[in-house]
Queue: 4 jobs
Job 1
Amino acid sequence: ELFTMLSNSVTNGGKTTLAEKLKNMLPNCDIISQDDFFKPESEVETDERGFKLYDVLDALYMDEMVTSIRNWIKSPASSGVVTEEPQNTSDNVKNVYILIVEGFLLYNYEPLNELWNRRYFLTLPYEECKRRRSTRVYQPADTPGYFDGHVWPMYLKYKNELEENASMQVDYLDGTKSQEELLSYVYSDIIQELNKLRE
């Protein structure tokens, strides 16, 4: 049995940490990260202000990402996923393979839309998001004005498109909550969904 979930987020919303912690708690769980599919800097477009346009789908090898996800779905057992059971796993969910796909631009990409059992979206208010972003080191480094000029506007555009898509069921999570609280909520939600699949 396969269970696929998406963890999407504003920049620095905590999706990678959440995904890693979930992986340690869930049986047969694997992660595919959108960050692994960025094009090299030389292939990323630059706008008229000199900003590298990283926060758009064109900055990513999305075809390769789709192939990776579909290959995993075809044969999760051969993907190198660790099949040790976490201690607290109920018998009900032991024979399931779980894939977490985490990234920042996942829900507006049509070829992936049919694949998910659950979709989560971590949000942050502007000030907190900007603060967290400023504490991270990026390669290449953010140019002055990049967050306000490119990153935040693209996030708002993307989130707006999501909210306008009535058919898209997304669970919005408050990224300012503690990691423990978010983890507890998402873990419980996944277990509940897995139990429903078994009924």
Job 2
Amino acid sequence: RWVLSLECKGSRNFLSALRRAVEVDFKDKDKHKSQGLYLLTTGIPDQETHTISAYVAEVCRGFDLQLHVCLLSVVKGTDSRIIPARYASPQETARAFKEIVQAAHGRFHWFGEAGIFESDDISSIISEMEKAKNYSQKCAFLVESLKQRS
């Protein structure tokens, strides 16, 4: 709800923005059982990953907060005037955010114009489908072996 009142201004300091969101804008955090914070980004944070991960782990331990990251890979050659504060390849960027998300017990989603590269939600669904398929095969084998005994 507070996002609707924000205006585009400030710096590119990722950790500062995260601190503001967690320490200032979650004023009513004690009134809610759990809260989620979604980061929509196209590049690597300005600060080192281990620094952000340590901060996020500490903050999330204090109350039920999960940080979820949606990483959009921008296609080279597009007219993107966004110049990152520090450079990292898409794979390095994804690794960094996956580490941060793990510290926050959140979910990571990475997508681009070509589709979904990686998603914790989709991975969970695929895992559940594999378990269901294996269970179904075991049940079918059991039914077949019972039919043969009869």
Job 3
Amino acid sequence: EVSTDDPETAFCTLANREELNPEEDSIHHCLYQFTCNETLTETNKLLCDVCTQRHCGPKNNLSERKYVYTNAKKQMLISLAPPVLTLHLKRFQQAGFNLQKVNRHIKFPEVIDLAPFCTAKCKNVAEGNTKVLYSLYGVVEHSGTMRSGHYTAYVKMRAMNNHLSDLVLRGQSQASKTEPVKGQWFHISDTHVQPVSVSKVLSSQAYLLFYERLL
């Protein structure tokens, strides 16, 4: 079922997407592609109940009803900004009859703004806000192939985020700082833990990204 309270704002976002120029092989480009406006035509047309009733009448026998399909537009947007944002990158592709791992580096920032990917009426964003900011605090990296490999993690040790606690426990959103949450990054591989720089983290081949909401 597809519905909207206001068709005029159905494809509007909190921040202007037209101002985005996402760099290829970046997490912004991935999100932009995933939330692009699509046109559904030909075999992808949408079954329209309103058009069907208009054409056949509401009292027609269901077995005799001829369903009407119509061209439509579709867009995937975020309607509720989560306290914790988890991004899972698809790191495999079809190669003939086999699956092949995608090893190229995908750029990701310390602080990301989800506003260009949120609906204009995002449920837990205060009216007038045009930013939905998140700070990176965890990365999972995979090395190896589709058949075997090793998972390691980068984790930021930081002070408790009271703003995040309020969001998780009570669903309340209050103004918070807009800079990355300060803390020390660590690389964890089985029983080995060592401190690393943020540049080392941002150069990793991310498989999973974890962000906490700032604003």
Job 4
Amino acid sequence: QINVLQAKKKFEILDAMLSFMHAQYTFFQQGYSLLHELDPYMKKLATELDQLVIDSAVEKREMEHKHALIQQRPQPLFYLQDFSYDDSKVEFNVDAPNGVVMEGYLFKRASNAFKTWNRRWFSIQNSQLVYQKKLKDVLTVVVEDLRLCTVKPCEDIERRFCFEVVSPTKSCMLQADSEKLRQAWIQAVQASIASAYRESPDSYYIE
């Protein structure tokens, strides 16, 4: 009986192996059929990809060439009076009831080694220059007292419409969205400085 059982097991194992081979054959055959149907599309996609690589290389080369030309070319004088980018009405009020002389978006150059530019919501209030990353964030004070500061436009920089607020301890480089806005911010800072001096005795800062 044991010999009979062992003889049967040999055939059962062989039958299981053969069934497994057929299953594998069917699986890969179906996979081949599906991928074979996709073959024309994959060839077309490969051709388009080659063209995209070529177009990207050409565009990169053209942009590098334009960038080199811009760096070599002097800044046109008409940029200083270019107000076409912003036709909105720009106002500031040193006597505003809420204390906010002027507010709006500006780009701020970071003081880290990378000198990155970040867009922040700036405002002039209570003789201070402050900004927020988001509307409900806590105010970050850039300049604690505008009476100790000066403001000036900056032309010798890689970006347009920049101006700098300089205090005794640090300086802050800012960029407006247009020449019109830059002039408005500079005038707002200057007006705030003058207003702050009028509101406090001059002798306070003699020392």
